[in-house]
Amino acid sequence: MNSDLVACPCCGKLVSANRMELTFRRPDEIAALTDEDRNIRCWYNNDIYVLDDARFFLRCTIPLPIAGLPERYSIGAWAEVNRESFKRIYDLWEDDQQANEPPMKAHLANNIPLTSGSLNCDVNVQLTGPTTRPEIIIIDKECSLHDEQVTGISLHRANEYSGLIR
Ligand SMILES: [Zn+2]
Q: Fewer CB atoms inside 10 A, N or C side of the chain?
């Protein structure tokens, strides 16, 4: 773990230079299942979970601009899409033109700590390319991530998210 400190551009607060990004391994509903249930009820790999052949989850990122820095902080999170969208995404999986696909309506499938109203909030999912994760755009203004995505976050806020990594 990198223990170097850097000054936050917005307030000068010293924060860890380590910018490891908060990532959720599974959608919350899947994480709540026992291993046995998960193996019986789910069809999955690193990027997708299908629960009971009826619910479709996709691993995405929630990109947040960082004020004063060129890069973004991306929370690794899951979105639930409908069957039609899932089929379309599956068909386009290797397609290098997939970023041209219009955004798809979805719901956020993780409760992100330090935010309010995140679980099940309305989002769009935008495909970005065959080797990069789809991006979540928060639509629901009641979710506190909406404002953070529109106006950006401070470096020390990014550090708070990273501090949740266990
Ligand atoms: Zn700051």
A: C
